[in-house]
Queue: 2 jobs
Job 1
Amino acid sequence: MLAVLGGFGAALCWATGTVAAAYASRIVAPQRVLAWVMLVGFVVVVPMLAIAGPPGHVGLENLGWLALSGAANVGGLLCVYAALRVGKISIITPITSTEGAIAAVLAVAAGERLGAPTAVLLCVMAVGVVLASRGEDRGAPGAHPRQATMFAAGAALIFGCGLYATGRASQALPLVWTLLPPRLIGVLALTLPLLVRRRLGVPRSALPYVVLSGLCEVAGFASYALGARHGIAIAAVLAAQFAAFSVVASYILFHERLRPLQLTGIATIAVAVAVLTAVRA
């Protein structure tokens, strides 16, 4: 039950953060959005670490999982924000949501058996991604560019590795310590260099969105890590349901419209993810 609740909580948080980041990414460059998101998360996480105290013996293996988790989170978010700057949320998030399937496959490869139903569903998801990214006149105003699709697909691959690494690290370390690596890497790699170059500033109109996105990233990450302690595959696939919430939000807030072929692709992804959740559960 905790794996289900943790994954579902992560989906809600990440959907909210994605919509907020979409607003911010259309005002300022993706690198600055991510720098602020990581800074906000770092400010939130550090006091929690002080209260929790040292994690005790970590070990080289766990340090490796933490480093991979942090780097993947930062790299994946950068790809997502770049996609959101030019593409449609209703297409980007379903493609990105396949991260859960990738993490589940990694969990299976690490010891669990990959059954025929899971393999078939992964193929179905791939078909859905192709359909969701097609069906538009690329030169038409407001069309979803292929570049955004490529960024979203890259984010899914990177996030999938990160979700699996987070799940592995969360099984051996206090929950709060799994929240630090992405924030620390993001601050060191993006926030501080931009600050030194005096390019960290964002317009006041974007500030509420980057703050909200940063808070949601931390909350979603914590919820997923908690759920992953009780089942990486289940928590990862349920967390990917953030796409469904994001698609609804994009229709209401951004007035995005999709063609039948794209709707078919999105529905295909959603159904495959839902069925995979049941199969893996």
Note: The mean pLDDT is 82.
Job 2
Amino acid sequence: MTILDHTDSAIRANLRSADRILTRPGPLGLDDEVQAEEHLSRADALLARRDRLAPAIGRISEPDVYAEHGPHSFFRDLVDAHPHAPLSPTTDRGGSLERLLRHQRFTDEQRTKRSTTGDLAVSTNNQQRADSSAAGAGGEFEPPQWILDQFASVARGVAPLRSLARSVPLPPFGTEVSIPRFDVAAGVMVETISSENTAPTSDAGTTDSISSPVVTLAGELPMSLQLYERSPGFDKIWAADMGESLASVVEQQLIAGTGTGGQLLGVLNVSGTNAVTYTSASPTGAGVIGAVANAVALVADNRKRPADVVIMRGARYAWIASQLDTAGNTLQRLGTGQVPEDPDEGFYGPVGGVAVVLDDAVPVTSSKDVVIALRSQDIILLESTPKVAAVIDANGLAGTLSVALTFHSYAACFTSRYPSAIGVVSGTGLTVPAGW
């Protein structure tokens, strides 16, 4: 343990002593006030000492206090550190707060070690957010890495486009992010030489930039007192629920977000995409597959790069797979090994020559759905690390025997970087068949 750790421990001990005195039942006496003031004065002096020592000594890296199979639960400490949480013989409010603060320091140290530079120039405006770091007073903490890994593993299955999109870290500040791009029509700079000994002529594409708002994605999951008290391994359960909930919101935004009113811009609302209309009063599987292939072809022609995925509802894919050709054989032959081992992940298909992912974030509007063909790596998604807080009212758990664990993160996306990389099939031929 470093000198700074000893100092931190002494600061916390004095603060706990002052807290015990000031929160005793009944009126405070003069001696109580004097003792509490002495503890607070010592804490102030130690804090000033720590500030003097920190630049000279620095901190020695230590492992995260919340290991996957370790003795401490991140979410249990998050609840126990709350000032309105119920007390029990095993509650250690001071220890819970200490571990949360140690974990946050560890997280901050790890973040400074990771490089956030990539091959994209991302700019932000100069507005900043203020985050509270006081546990129990609106304080929010980043879950440990193993919980985030659990969260991510669930998110992949329920949010395929989110998983396929190009991922870039979200800058720590700003309410809007921008990236540069070449003019969509020109795409590249081309120089031609008409004859020998003449200067080249330039057919250079112009550049511009596109922007995305940074939106807040938030959710709340109630945790029963029974789960809290009798399930020591509930961290994984809650992480999985958190991952699925947040991922489904991000996926819906990537597919159908309006781009206004605090929403991201989804691919279905990008202007200038390749639109294919399949019109039919009696749709057929062959007709839908032909329209999808048309959209794939338009992406290849106009983006000059092939589409790498087709996105459709699971029910739409099942309907196509049920259709028969003129010989009575299934129209959509999957073939051996083309159905993923884990049905929540991987590709199905192909349809129109391109592998399919099933995504029920695709909306059904006026009894019609759509099919999307796109080049997924042209979509850029920027996300922050989720933060979690425990919310307990002033009456503790007495009313509902539950505590709300809230989480939020920030995200931005660029779906309109190359509108020509998106093809959308719609029309009366996409009317949802009865029972599908």
Note: Residues 95 and 115 are 32 Å apart (CA to CA).
